[in-house]
Fold this protein.
Amino acid sequence: MTKKLSFSLNVIKDYPKPGINFLDINPLLARPEQFRAVIDAFCSAIQTALPDKVRARAAVITPESRGFIFAAPVAHTLGLPLVLIRKKGKIPNRPYAFHITNEYTSYDMEIDEDLLQAHNHYIYMDDILATGQTLAAVRKALQEKGKELVFSLHVTDVADLKPMRDNNPALHGLAVETVL
């Protein structure tokens, strides 16, 4: 378990719809020292959690769009391949489509089939872990292709939704960490 960083994110109440509390990462991104601390914490967590031989065979996978902000510098720093999960219609080459339903919407996502086939082990990265539905959908999509999600990293989570995540069988056995 990585040592937690101590700064916090802004909470925007009732956004994008009533009953949802949106965690705003913009102030974090506007402070280079905090952003660097998050990237460093992600890199450290991956290096600590995964043995060298697993890490050497893994790729970072992240959903559109805020996950891209964190996953790209981490993949670059650790010398790992980066595979993007895009909204439907954004993958020009052989898209592998799957569906996601989360706490406030439902949509189709795609992964480039050729990039997906190039790796067997994946490290998932995103900004906020809320209900875990996006993470569960990605894990299921990878499993359907014979791929394994070996680790999941997030900037932070919504603590009040932990019971929902804990009761989701699709997340059982998956190592999940946050840095804030």
Observations:
- The two ends are 12 Å apart (CA to CA).
- The longest helix spans residues 32-49.
- Residues 10-178 form a domain with the Rossmann fold fold (CATH 3.40.50.2020).
- The helical segments are 26-29, 32-49, 52-57, 66-78, 113-117, 133-144, 162-166.
